[in-house]
């Protein structure tokens, strides 16, 4: 069994949590020595379904990707559960389903159901009381060592003081940690950590509102978790596009071979030869 995100927080501060868009990405992250994974709602929408992150994917879509990752990788996974997919009973069921599928934690946010990317304009958030109801419903199905994280997008519409007020209300309702979205200044992270009594996550997503602070910078500001939700996916996408263009324009990929993972490297990640040896042993003649 893998360690939980909660237990890892006691050992490694800040904890690096990295996005994996599929099972193979999860294996690559594990091979790199990283200790915790993230299943992004945007990643599911973009990579698995080829659509924008605009509340068009379902709980089942996310669960499918989670099950595939947990089928091959033992690392703990934090799952983006958007607004929880429904009313109180539905949110409670969401938590049960995520736990059964192998999640180590989830986050639920305070945007309206028809949500937008946290780093895009025109976000709308629900009332504090409605989000408290979401957290209470989620907490009702939570278990020991499962992280229930509350994400708040309040900075964009209500300011930093309200982020603190909302966060503490969510903690009182049962949240174990806080994900303040689209923070733009280190001083704000420091202010949040000094006024919120649970671990805080910093979302270091490229090309967004939050600068690419280092883990050392964030640690000094009191941040306990650093999330890189789609970094590898963006790099993979750029590399794939270059290869497709090379094939289209030149009809050969010979000039791109040095940038490719070799067959032997692929087999190493997949533990391919162990599978092959097992087949040989099972079906060899005595």
3D architecture notes:
The protein is an alpha/beta fold and 286 residues long. Helix content is 47%, strand content 12%. The chain has 13 helices and 8 strands. It has helices spanning 5-9, 23-31, 41-49, 59-70, 88-101, 128-139, 155-158, 160-173, 186-195, 215-220, 231-250, 263-270, 272-283; strands at residues 15-19, 37-39, 77-80, 105-109, 147-152, 177-180, 201-203, 225-228. It has an 8-stranded parallel β-sheet with strand order 6-5-4-3-2-1-8-7. Helix 4 packs parallel to helix 5. It is globular, with a radius of gyration of 20 Å. The mean pLDDT is 95.
Mean pLDDT: 95
The share of residues in extended strands comes to 5-15%
Uncertain spans: none
Can you count the beta strands?
8
**Tally of separate helices:** 13
Outline, from the CA principal axes? globular
Query: What is the N-to-C succession of helices and strands?
Result: HEHEHHEHEHEHHEHEHEHHH
The class by helix and strand makeup works out as alpha/beta
Our measurement of the CA-to-CA distance between the termini, rounded to an integer number of angstroms, reads 36 Å
Largest sheet properties: 8 strands, parallel
Residues in helix, %:
40-55%
Radius of gyration: 20 Å
Topology, element by element:
Layout: H1 5-9, E1 15-19, H2 23-31, E2 37-39, H3 41-49, H4 59-70, E3 77-80, H5 88-101, E4 105-109, H6 128-139, E5 147-152, H7 155-158, H8 160-173, E6 177-180, H9 186-195, E7 201-203, H10 215-220, E8 225-228, H11 231-250, H12 263-270, H13 272-283
Parallel strand pairs: 1-2, 1-8, 2-3, 3-4, 4-5, 5-6, 7-8
Helix pairs in contact: 2-4, 4-5, 5-6, 6-8
């Amino acid at each position: 069994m893998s360690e939980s995100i909660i237990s890892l927080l006691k050992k490694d501060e800040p904890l690096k949590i990295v996005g994996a868009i599929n099972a193979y990405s999860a294996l690559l992250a594990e091979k790199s020595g990283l200790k915790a994974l993230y299943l992004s709602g945007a990643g599911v929408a973009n990579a698995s379904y080829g659509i924008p992150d605009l509340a068009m994917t379902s709980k089942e879509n996310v669960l499918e990707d989670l099950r595939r990752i947990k089928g091959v990788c033992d690392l703990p996974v934090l799952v983006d559960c958007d607004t929880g997919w429904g009313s109180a009973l539905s949110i409670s069921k969401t938590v049960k389903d995520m736990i059964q599928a192998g999640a180590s934690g989830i986050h639920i946010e305070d945007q309206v159901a028809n949500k937008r990317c946290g780093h895009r304009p025109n976000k709308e958030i629900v009332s504090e009381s409605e989000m408290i109801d979401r957290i209470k419903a989620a907490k009702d199905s939570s278990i020991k060592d499962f992280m229930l994280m509350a994400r708040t997008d309040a900075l964009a519409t209500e300011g930093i003081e309200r982020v603190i007020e909302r966060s503490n209300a969510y903690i009182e309702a049962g949240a174990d940690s806080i994900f303040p979205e689209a923070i733009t200044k280190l001083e704000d992270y420091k202010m949040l950590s000094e006024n919120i009594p649970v671990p805080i996550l910093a979302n270091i997503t490229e090309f967004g509102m939050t600068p690419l602070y280092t883990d050392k910078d964030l640690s000094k500001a009191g941040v306990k978790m650093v999330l890189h939700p789609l970094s590898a996916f963006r790099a993979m996408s750029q590399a794939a596009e270059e290869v497709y263009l090379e094939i289209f324009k030149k009809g050969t990929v010979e000039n791109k071979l040095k940038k490719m993972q070799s067959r032997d490297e692929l087999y190493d990640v997949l533990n391919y030869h162990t599978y092959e040896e097992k087949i040989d042993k099972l079906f060899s003649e005595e």
